[in-house]
Amino acid sequence: MTKMTEIKGNIASPKGFVADATHAELKFQKLDMGVILSEVPAAVAGVFTTNKVSAAPVKLDKTVVAGGVAQAIIVNSAIANAVTGEEGLINAKKTQRLLAEKFDLDAKHVAVCSTGVIGKQLPMDKIALGISKLSATNGHSDGFSEAILTTDLVKKEIVYQVELGGEVVTVAGVCKGSGMIHPNMATMLGFITTDAKIAQPLLQEILSEVIEVTFNQITVDGDTSTNDTVLVLANGQAGNAEITADTADYDGFKAVLAAVCQTLAKKIAADGEGATKLIEVNVTGAPDELSARMIAKHIVGSSLVKTAIFGADPNWGRVISAIGQVAPFEVPDIELEIQSDLVLLHSTPVDFDQAELSEKLKEKIVVIDVELNNGDKSGTAWGCDLTYKYVEINALYHS
Questions:
Q1: What is the CATH number of the domain that holds 358?
Q2: Is the pLDDT of residue 399 over 50?
Q3: What are the Cα distances from residue 331, in Å, to 204, 316, 326?
Q4: Is it the case that residue 393 has pLDDT exceeding 80?
Q5: Confidence band (pLDDT; 50, 70, 90) for 396?
Q6: Where are the alpha helices (DSSP H) in the chain?
Q7: Boundary of a domain, candidates 270, 296, 319
Q8: 55 with 100, same domain?
Q9: pLDDT tier at 29, thresholds 50, 70, 90
Q10: CATH number of the structural domain spanning residue 64
């Protein structure tokens, strides 16, 4: 078991990174532009939306990741630069070039991300203004996590340290996401920095595997966005021996990267638009991991389950219905616990105190445990309740 320690910090905590944030006047007053810079070119890995209408920055960043190296990430909120045609791609490339010129970088080593309203062109005069105010020496690194937010109510960041290759390695993550969350992936931007030394192909392999059991296991509303992006920069400045496959350091790095991604994913689920509760669903006893994850995610994504949780209604029939809709095998022997109260055993109802369980469902975290008794594989998913506030937010927010 890898021993990792959570520390106070931000996305610039790993050695050799700086970050800054500014007001580019895309929003009325709030910070709306941020940058992450590595002192040296870094290995870059990325995972992107599966939405076939992907935003201009996604198209651009896929080419950056294909190159294997990045030294900066520039992010704006308020405007997604999605469904903006050729002009949108031109503006993303111009943003890339302006940032490269500002910090004397190779433009092909600059990733560009945007989030916000779909269908609006970036006001390039304001983008240029914002970039002109960014600094690599007097950076407002704590502000980066705020600058990328849209309908989020809280900032989402985490920093872990672990000893690898004889040195202390730091892994920091930050993300945004609140609505239009149904990964593969979601209306989320996630950024991870690390001073670990690792080759780009291995970094990409690990990220792709970790994403499947973390960010791709959250859902808020079943809608997959146009701009979903997770990028990892690894600049090697910790001085550790290079991480290679099938070693203890490989296992340790994968564990800490998974911990960062899972923590951020759960923060997104808990901050779902209008949400009052985080829902965790654990499925065990499945014949394969994919089925376990799929069932868990369908339960947590069910509108009927989500509204029951909002209303503190221990309606376990909705959970069973969700299982039966997607299970690719017969499920005649289910055990079901809600908030550790057994409500179903061998697919037979068990007497329980409904009033007491209803009170437990008013807690901030609701856990549903499902045992399928059909194998030894497991999966977990996270989501949130569906509230009146979600409808209000999305009726009023223009996207």
A1: 3.10.20.340
A2: no
A3: 36, 15, 11
A4: no
A5: low
A6: 56-67, 85-103, 124-133, 144-147, 200-213, 248-270, 289-301, 303-310, 316-326, 354-360, 388-396
A7: 270
A8: yes
A9: confident
A10: 3.60.70.12
Q: Are residues 266 and 288 in the same domain?
A: no
Per-position DSSP letters for 175-224, written without gaps between them: EE-SSSB-SSSBS-EEEEEE---B-HHHHHHHHHHHHHHTGGGB-SSS--
Binding residues are 150, 176, 187, 273, 394, 399
Domain shared by 162 and 283, yes or no? no
Q: Which residues line the annotated binding site for substrate? A: 150, 176, 187, 273, 394, 399
Q: What is the mean pLDDT of residues 371-388?
A: 93
Q: Are residues 212 and 291 in the same domain?
A: no
Alpha-carbon distance of 257 to 232, in angstroms, equals 10
Q: How far apart are CA 13 and CA 172, in angstroms?
A: 7
Q: Which amino acids are annotated catalytic?
A: 187
Six-digit token string for 31: 């910070």
Q: Which residues form the domain of 174?
A: 4-270
How many Å from the N-terminal Cα to the C-terminal Cα in the chain?
A: 44
Closest CA to 8 of 201, 190, 141: 141
Q: How many helices (H) and strands (E) does the chain have?
A: 11, 15
Taking the C-alpha atoms of residue 141 and residue 32, their distance in angstroms, rounded to an integer, is 13
Q: How many CB atoms lie within 10 A of CB 167?
A: 16
Q: What integer pLDDT is reported at residue 347 of this predicted model?
A: 95
Output DSSP code: residue 172: E
Say if residue 60 is in the same domain as residue 168.
yes
Residues in the chain: 399
Is residue 291 helix, strand or coil?
A: helix
Residue 46 in tokens = 């990325």
pTM: 0.88
